[in-house]
Design goal:
Largest sheet: 10 strands, mixed
CATH superfamily of the largest domain: Isopropylmalate Dehydrogenase
Distance between the termini: 23 Å
Family: Belongs to the isocitrate and isopropylmalate dehydrogenases family. LeuB type 1 subfamily.
Helix content: 40-55%
Number of helices: 12
Number of domains: 2
Strand content: 15-25%
Bound molecules: 1,4-dihydronicotinamide adenine dinucleotide, magnesium ion
Radius of gyration: 20 Å
Keywords: Amino-acid biosynthesis, Branched-chain amino acid biosynthesis, Cytoplasm, Leucine biosynthesis, Magnesium, Manganese, Metal-binding, NAD, Oxidoreductase
Subcellular location: Cytoplasm
Main location: cytoplasm
Number of strands: 14
Structural class: alpha/beta
CATH class of the largest domain: Alpha Beta
Organism: Cobetia crustatorum
């Protein structure tokens, strides 16, 4: 039976970048990779078509799929929807929660060809290869109670930052196992000097560390981690942190690699089922112009083949194809600089496709 991949293009640049990634998947399928592709609506597209950012049909398809490729959701068009539970971003949060995609893997790798696109000096970033492991279904983005209400005559907004021991343990074990396969260094990021929830986080990380004696565990406060990421990023190998800190630190790390348009991600559940998406959003400022960088989405497909389908050779072909087009000097606007050739979204996608097919 074919492995079933659900494609959810979403909003803004989502459909543009997803189309380029689908070209690669179709070529892989034609070249012998056993996959079947179906498409669904999520986010603003889901709201427009079915009145909900996560229509029941999409949720059913997502549960039935072996893996999901998502573009991005959201945009100003839907920011005025009064019922917050119907905003596009809630479609994405709903998918993560319903499928229990608790482990978000965000690699920040600087391609040598893009050293000049990084905002940091080459000697600080060259060879950078960090894996940020972000907890994705708990923490302050999901904690109850939450809301905006009137207290003593003025409005107050509040959220709850909560993690259970079991939630911390499962993301911790994912990070330790990844560290074992890499350089055996794990840095856990928290704010244990101020927040009780992260005091517990640190305690649990220390406890499970005993099961991974070959991994060196260190701890860092999130404010220092933000600083160290731009001061000396290569000190890190695997980093593990909660939902909000991971959201912020991975965006920061993305800039070291030249552009957020280069960063793929995997969101996995306990069975290895996953949703794969670029780290960036729907980029409404450039949507419809054909200039978005599709590489983060294409590299997300490579992660899918590696992590959910165990098809390492296919994943490597995609990554190699990306390297080839960067070697050729092709650049979308976000990574272009003097001496490179500026190309559109589809020109970039076609070039990767050609370099991919050349390996089949
Ligand atoms: P964003 O990531 O969409 O854009 C930030 C900046 O990066 C913009 O200047 C954009 O043009 C640029 N950018 C992003 N992706 C790019 C690409 N592939 N190629 C070239 N440039 C790229 O974040 P922003 O502006 O904060 O949010 C825009 C919308 O996206 C909002 O509605 C937000 O809620 C949503 N969002 C959705 C996410 C998702 O679907 N996973 C994640 C983050 C934001
Ligand atoms: Mg973010």
């Amino acid at each position: 039976m074919s492995r079933n991949i659900l494609i959810l293009p979403g909003d803004g640049i989502g459909p543009e970048i997803t189309a380029e990634a689908v070209k690669i998947l179709e070529a892989a399928r034609d070249g012998g990779l056993d996959v079947a592709l179906t498409e669904g609506k999520v986010g603003g597209a889901g709201y427009d078509a079915a009145g909900h950012p996560l229509p029941p049909a999409t949720l059913d398809a997502a549960k039935a799929a072996d893996a999901i490729l998502l573009g991005a959701v959201g945009g100003p068009k839907w920011d005025k929807i009064e019922d917050i539970s119907l905003r596009p971003e809630r479609g994405l949060l709903g998918l993560r929660k319903e499928l229990e995609l608790f482990a978000n893997l965000r690699p920040a790798i600087l391609y040598p060809q893009l050293a000049e696109a990084s905002s940091l000096k080459p000697e600080v970033v060259s060879g950078l290869d960090i894996m940020i492991v972000r907890e994705l279904t708990g923490g302050i983005y999901f904690g109850q109670p939450r809301g905006i209400e009137t207290r003593d005559g003025q409005r107050v907004g509040y959220n709850t930052y909560v993690y259970s021991e079991s939630e911390i343990e499962r993301i911790g074990r994912t990070a330790f196992e990844l560290a074992q396969k890499r350089n055996k260094k794990l840095c856990s990021v928290d704010k244990a000097n101020v927040l009780e929830v992260t005091m517990l986080w640190r305690e649990v990380m220390e406890r499970i560390a005993a099961d991974y004696p070959d991994v060196e565990l260190t701890h860092m406060y999130v404010d220092n981690a933000a600083m160290q990421l731009v001061r000396a990023p290569k000190q890190f190998d695997v980093m593990v942190t909660g939902n909000m800190f991971g959201d912020i630190l991975s965006d920061e790390a993305s800039m070291l690699t030249g552009s957020i348009g280069m960063l793929p991600s995997a969101s996995l559940n306990a069975d290895g089922k996953g949703m794969y998406e670029p780290c960036h959003g729907s980029a409404p400022d450039i949507a419809g112009q054909g200039i978005a960088n599709p590489l983060a989405t294409i590299l997300s497909v490579a992660m899918m083949l590696r992590y959910t389908f165990n098809e390492t050779a296919w994943a490597e072909r995609i990554e190699k194809a990306v390297g080839v087009v960067l070697d050729e000097g092709l650049r979308t606007a976000d990574i272009a600089y003097a001496g490179t050739r500026k190309v559109s979204t589809s020109e970039m996608g076609d070039a990767v496709l050609a370099a991919f097919k050349a390996q089949l």
